[in-house]
Specification:
Distance between the termini: 26 Å
CATH topology: TIM Barrel
CATH class: Alpha Beta
Shape: globular
Helix content: 40-55%
Number of helices: 10
CATH architecture: Alpha-Beta Barrel
Order of helices and strands: HEHEHEHEHEHEHEHEHH
Radius of gyration: 16 Å
Number of strands: 8
CATH superfamily: Aldolase class I
Structural class: alpha/beta
Strand order of the largest sheet: 1-2-3-4-5-6-7-8
Length: 212
């Protein structure tokens, strides 16, 4: 039986636990992170030109394919379609989920950032959500930390898979897991590690809990 593309992506999303995000300047960390157990990689670079994004996205797409991971592009549903990405992620200050869906179609994944209970409840149409920032982080300057309370709210109320995000690393991830997170997204915990593969492996082990 041939499984429809969109159904296959949803199945892989359901099983995913570790989500890694970085820009073009840290692309050298992607392959070791994938070897360490990253399930989803998101290319996020708000300063690169369109040509630079396309080249980096094509390289990342190939790496993710080689390691059986999902590839997501930040902000740009048009480029996500162009490079054959598995999905696109949009923040609260970007386009709506409905607008992104209109561009990528029914099969690609659409992710949404959420920072409040109301945004979690209002994420209709998204395939997954990011919940955070759990802790203050320089990757989200000006965005107040939400703490593990919002993680607990998402664990009880989110209608789609959610990834806790924001200042998570080996020291802070256990508290998020205790609050109900079974999935996490990280940036610096891998990108700034001297051993991205080992960092990813340790984070993945910390998420070795049943995924609901």
């Amino acid at each position: 039986m041939v499984v429809p593309f969109g159904t296959l992506q949803a199945m892989r999303l359901h099983d995913a636990r570790l989500y890694y995000i970085c820009g073009i300047d840290r692309l050298d960390t992607v392959e070791p992170a994938l070897r360490g157990g990253v399930d989803i990689f998101q290319l996020r670079d708000k300063h690169a030109s369109e040509d630079e994004l396309l080249r980096a996205a094509e390289a990342a797409r190939q790496l993710c394919d080689e390691h059986g991971a999902l590839f997501v592009l930040n902000d740009r549903p048009d480029l996500a379609v162009a490079v054959g990405a598995d999905g696109v992620h949009v923040g609260q200050d970007d386009m709506t989920v409905a607008d992104a869906r209109a561009i990528v179609g029914p099969d690609l994944l659409v992710g949404r950032s959420t920072h409040t209970p109301e945004q979690i409840d209002g994420a209709q149409g998204a395939d997954y959500i990011g919940v955070g920032p759990v802790h203050a982080t320089p990757t989200k300057l000006g965005r107040a930390a939400v703490g593990t309370e919002l993680v607990s709210y998402a664990a009880a109320h989110a209608q789609v898979p959610f990834f806790a995000i924001g200042g998570l690393d080996g020291a802070t991830l256990p508290a998020a897991v205790a609050a109900g997170a079974t999935r996490a997204a990280v940036v610096r915990a891998i990108s700034e590690s001297p051993d991205p593969e080992a960092a990813a492996r340790a984070l993945r082990a910390a998420l070795a809990v049943p995924v609901g």
